[in-house]
Amino acid sequence: MNRTSTCNAQECLVSVTAGSIRLAGNLRVPKKARGVVLFANSNGSNRDSSRNRYVTQVLCQAGLATLLIDLLTPQEVAADRQLRHLRFDIGLLSERIVSAINWLLENPTTQHLGIGFLGSSTGSAAALVAAAEHPEGIRAIVSRGGRPELAGSALSRVKAPTLLIVGGNDIPVLRRNQDAIQHLHTEKQLEIIPEATHLFEELGALEEVARLASQWFEQYLTPAHQPALP
């Protein structure tokens, strides 16, 4: 992947309380931030992945703050590697996303910013469920190789403009996204990255994902395009 120029931003480690546990995260806020994007990933190790770090850099250059958060604790990640059960617990993941939303709304650095979601895998479904439950607070959603169909009936209640990005060679996930988008009754779009697979590891694929996500958030999340809260 190509390197991008350094974004002038303040970055810090944060801790988000979710029920009886605490979730670790990385908050990055550029000067004069125009919105904040919460990354919703179902695997706790994704906070440190080079793919997510690259996308945060692109969003930062667009003037967007980012919160990369582990939705599972290290102990839960270890258990999930064996049983693969927690990553599919959409209710649990969505509850933790709501906790992260509340944290952003209470944090002095981000409380004035509109909130968007960037979800991947089952984290996309959890983000959509959370957005359906808080339609007044979520401005825009991007799903990257996600499983939106797992959001079930919540899809029809999502109000935020939603972009689904899928690899053209990720056939099972592509079909699920094609079905799920029919149940969204909001501004929506399906973008297919030709010849890309699930993790967008092919040359130029992740760069295209980051470009599309940045454009979507600039269109629907930033102040010039934000609708007034009810």
Describe this structure as you would to a colleague.
With 230 residues, this protein is of the alpha/beta class. The chain has one domain: Rossmann fold. It is built from 6 helices and 8 strands. Strands 1-2-4-3-5-6-7-8 form an 8-stranded mixed beta sheet, sandwiched between helices. Helix 4 links the parallel strand 5 and strand 6. The N terminus and C terminus are likely disordered.
What attributes does this structure have?
alpha/beta; disordered C terminus; eight-stranded mixed β-sheet; disordered N terminus; Rossmann fold
Euclidean distance between termini CA atoms:
41 Å
Q: Determine the CATH superfamily.
A: Alpha/Beta hydrolase fold, catalytic domain
Largest sheet: 8 strands, mixed
CATH class: Alpha Beta
The helix tally amounts to 6
Tally of strands: 8
Widest sheet, order of strands: 1-2-4-3-5-6-7-8
Structural class: alpha/beta
Query: In which range does the helix fraction lie?
Result: 25-40%
Spatial extent as radius of gyration: 16 Å
Strand residue content: 25-35%
CATH topology (level 3) name: Rossmann fold
- The 3D shape can be described as globular
| Overall pLDDT | 90
Number of domains: 1
Order of helices and strands: EEEHEHHEHEEHEH
Q: What is the annotated CATH architecture?
A: 3-Layer(aba) Sandwich
Low-confidence stretches: 1-5, 226-230
